[in-house]
Automatic annotation (TrEMBL):
<dbReference type="InterPro" id="IPR000644">
    <property type="entry name" value="CBS_dom"/>
</dbReference>
<protein>
    <submittedName>
        <fullName>Cyclic-di-AMP-binding protein CbpB</fullName>
    </submittedName>
</protein>
<feature type="domain" description="CBS">
    <location>
        <begin position="86"/>
        <end position="138"/>
    </location>
</feature>
<dbReference type="InterPro" id="IPR048125">
    <property type="entry name" value="CBS_CbpB"/>
</dbReference>
<dbReference type="InterPro" id="IPR051257">
    <property type="entry name" value="Diverse_CBS-Domain"/>
</dbReference>
<feature type="domain" description="CBS">
    <location>
        <begin position="20"/>
        <end position="62"/>
    </location>
</feature>
<keyword id="KW-0129">CBS domain</keyword>
<dbReference type="InterPro" id="IPR046342">
    <property type="entry name" value="CBS_dom_sf"/>
</dbReference>
<dbReference type="Pfam" id="PF00571">
    <property type="entry name" value="CBS"/>
</dbReference>
Length: 156
């Protein structure tokens, strides 16, 4: 259980945790793998969310999942990507969170995941929480813990 003081302080910065869907690079499950290859190369992320036409979260696609499809027995062929869709090869077994502010769960899951998709009850894609943003908040907390604690004590 996270201490209330720490949780309260982290929550003060909660708007920093969530990168909203509008600012997240994503793919559509119907996109061809050739298109996905170009997008991933351009955005320079090795893994991004996959959505359907109604912006529901479906999974994630990574560069290794694409390059695997390009490999022949003794060559690499980009054209193999034209006839395949993102939905066919994406990873569907993804940890997601519904409440972007459930710190306990988020900190636990970020140990193994560089980012966490946030979804509504109906699977609508809300955004992502990245390890980097959480580290920035924890860094801030570590540097300002005493100061904030004093402020809270003086309030009572
Ligand atoms: P970071 O903690 O900033 O290094 O991000 C961790 C991972 O989250 C990245 O490697 C990407 O897979 C994903 N990510 C971060 N920001 C974005 C974004 N704006 N759009 C799509 N994916 C992102």
């Amino acid at each position: 259980m996270i201490s209330t003081e720490i949780s309260d302080m982290l929550m003060k910065n909660k708007r920093h945790f969530l990168i909203p869907a509008s600012q997240v690079a994503s793919l559509n499950a119907d996109n061809s793998l050739a298109h996905a290859f170009l997008v991933l190369t351009k955005v320079r992320y090795s893994r991004i969310p996959v959505l359907d036409h109604e912006s529901k979260f479906m999974g994630e696609l990574s560069m290794p999942l694409i390059t695997e499809q390009m490999l022949g027995l003794d060559d690499i062929d980009l054209q193999r990507l034209d006839g395949m869709t993102v939905g066919e090869v994406m990873d569907r077994e993804i940890d997601t969170v519904q409440d972007p502010y459930d710190l306990e769960e988020i900190l636990h899951l970020l140990v193994d995941n560089p980012f966490l998709p946030v979804v509504s009850q109906d699977q609508d894609f809300v955004g992502i929480i990245t390890r980097r943003e959480m580290m920035k908040s924890l860094n801030y907390l570590a540097h300002n813990f005493d100061k904030n604690l004093n402020l809270m004590d003086n309030r009572d």
